[in-house]
Amino acid sequence: MAQQDLSKIGVRAGLFMVRMLLRLKGLFQALWSIFARLVRPLARFFFVSILVSAYQITYSMKRRFGHWYRPAKNRAMFFLTNRYALHAVMVVIATVTGVVNVQMTSVRAESIDAFNKSLLYSIITKEDSPIIEEFADASVTGASTTDNYVEATVAVADFAAALGAANIQLAALALATTGDLEAYAFQWDAANGYLFNDVDGNGTADQVVVLVGVVGTTISDVDIIA
Hints:
5 strands; elongated; five-stranded mixed sheet; 62% helix
């Protein structure tokens, strides 16, 4: 009896599931029909109005302008695939690069050489720059006057301090005079004297003469040859 009851229950459950699936099938068909009616105009617009139109425009442009770009395309492909043309381009690039490097090296060398000879280089590196060394001769007279000459009254610590003090004095002379007058400023430390020359009268030292062993106020404007 128990097995027969279980069989009946299983059969009834199977029939119930089949009936439910048949009903759901009808429901799904109704829903799909509604969805298709809603989506079909959008799909038709997308495929017909957009994709087909884009294809027609592309095809028309290709046919209209194809006879123009095809020859250029073929020439470009020939140039890109020709090994001799590629070698020629590489030779040109290498030549231009070499010329540019040589020019840049020459410019850098000139800039470095000019900087190494400047007063600023000697201040930064604390090294002696290539400057002129002369000995003062009290018997020599010149045309310099007190209007374009100034000297220190006390010693400075070193060359850098002498340069700073001379620029201050030359700037004062430039303000006191007119006409871009060439000016001189003398400074000294414990070992040497430094005669700074402002060539263009702009208030800044342009060159310097180291007077070895000349310290103190042992020279004056009359010792400078104009």
